[in-house]
Fold this protein.
Amino acid sequence: MLTLNSDVKYIKGVGEKRAELFHKLGIFCVKDLVEYYPRAYQDWSADIKALDCPEGEPVSIKATLIKPVKEHYVRKGMTLFKCSFSDGETIINVTIFNNKYLANSLKLYEDYVLYGKLEKRLTSVEMSAPQIEKAALNIGIHPIYPATDRLNSKAIAKVMKTALDALPEFDETLPLEIREKFGLAGLDFAMRQIHFPDSDNNAQSARKRLIFEELLVLQLGLMKLKSKKKTKTKLSVTQDFTDDFYRLLPFEPTGAQRRAIADCVSDMQSEYPMNRLIQGDVGSGKTAVAAGVIFTAVKNGYQAALMAPTEILANQHFATLAPMLSGSGIRVELLTGSTPAKEKREIKARLMDGEIDLIIGTHAIIQNDVEFKKLALVITDEQHRFGVNQRATLAMKGDEVHTLVMSATPIPRTLALMIYGDLDISILDELPPGRQPVRTDVVNSSYRKRIYDFIKKAIARGEQAYIVCPLVDGEEPTLASAEKYAEELANGAFYGYNLGILHGKMKPKSKDEIMRSFAEGSVKVLVSTTVIEVGVDVPNATIMVIENAERFGLSQLHQLRGRVGRGSAGSYCILISDSEGDNAQERLQIMKKYSDGFKIADEDLKQRGPGDFFGSRQHGLPDLKIADMLGDMETLKICRACADEIIAEDAGLDMPKHKAIANKISDMFRNSLSN
Ligand code: ADP
Ligand code: MG
């Protein structure tokens, strides 16, 4: 018998081979499958006539084929098939592109459902490339799943149906009183109707129920984490050395930087460990805050670790901080994947002996295999995934260590407080003085030559530029494209100029060399993939050109743009895009209009809808399957209140009616802790 724990390969019609395709979607057992929710539905109920259909949006119409398919050869690789259907009132002319298989399968006088957009012309009604299914089979609301090339939505739906039919009733997880109070459907109903709803209404109540449950479980889990008894720390600092630090700093700190450092120092002075998040838009000066906090910790006799997400960034932090701090006797070392083995050993030994005060490196290295003599402070820079995972890191180093997480991800404050209820938050809401907004333009590729000339002028003034090529996640060919593009430029427009190339797959050592030459100014133009997205700081670079800008999310563009405008010279961001589809231009105009990361995130949200923007990847919470932090904010609030009530009644979730929820919590949080 099929259970939720069964391997997907045991579902009828799946087997070993296809199971692998499911694995690519993160689906291993039946539970993973049934929790793979549709991202949309298509309504194939076809209960409307062509003449009553709205134009421009997908509709389904039941119709009979009344004129046989005629083939029109247009050119190589392009064959059109034309045919006509009737819905009993209206004749619908249908064009099918290239799909010989579909065209041949259509039979005269049979009933079909056509799904697609309808166009009403003066004398005819047309449908171009509709989906066509036999009417007998396909009436109803169809789920649309996020699919892959080799496993399309229809195939997933088929397996889903088989699995759901084979599964016994789903055990209810929510206590009756909660379901009644909030008007929530039962779990069995919800799990089946979310995939194959009998009506729009059913789909909605299924959704409502599942979102509610997911957010409730999330809230309860976070509350449990929070209520874990705070351990006192023996690593309190006694003296505040911030004023000494300010004397080392080559600039005046902003008010926001002062406040953030003071917050941290006072945290470290208390008897409990610091657990703080610093949020500051790109360029707000988070590094200096980190340095200030480190300074006081070290001067109190402790060791500190500064972790960066990439080697480039770790190197850069080392290059800025080591000279600044070593003047006052602080011993700083760098530890990354490309540190030679012998040196690594030495550094580790010295860390253990307490001969190094500050270690700067990549997350993985410092987290995994380093022991300290007297570690009191761990700072994580540019951490987009903090929250729950951050706590996991913490646990590794012992609960009493002070932790500081720095992030540029714009999360609205109310939301941040709700999700990171147990973290304290400081916000850097002030940019260093003298910054000029980055002038942003959106152009098409016909401007490319002018852009190159513009860059050359900047180089003549002694400035530098970035050119970013798109890298679609996991898509290998674009790698070559960045390289190829750089080569073209080197032999063409920028012949005789010192060009550098940087991409993620390069050896760390060559990356480092290129970055260094760029920072020193010998490389004038850096052609790069998005590896420079986070943190890179070369104030002399004043131009950021982004190719195929429509391929990037706005928040990502904002991060990229943040690489320029770091000095006092006027800076430019030029977004190149030829795309006309999917309101790309409109989206890019937002970049022109706003310079504030929060505003951009807001606008992004409005345009793209919440699902896209706030993938849980960004905030480091457990992966949510159906709910959406921002879009479902109202429900989140309700769940928060509901969770409060549950905890008030049964703090340990020990009562029988809460058992199922308690299990769900460990389920959700175990997954997030292990990745
Ligand atoms: P973030 O990490 O927040 O994006 P950085 O720490 O890299 O920003 O700082 C951005 C740039 O601003 C750096 O070149 C840094 O030296 C400079 N900077 C930081 N704080 C100040 C300040 N108070 N006054 C002038 N320049 C500053
Ligand atoms: Mg930074």
User: Anything to note?
Assistant: Residues 251-254, 257, 280, 282-288, 432, 535, 537, 539, 566 surround adenosine-5'-diphosphate (ligand 1) (CB under 6 Å). DSSP finds 24 helices and 22 strands in the chain. The radius of gyration is 29 Å. The CA atoms of residues 558 and 597 lie 7 Å apart.
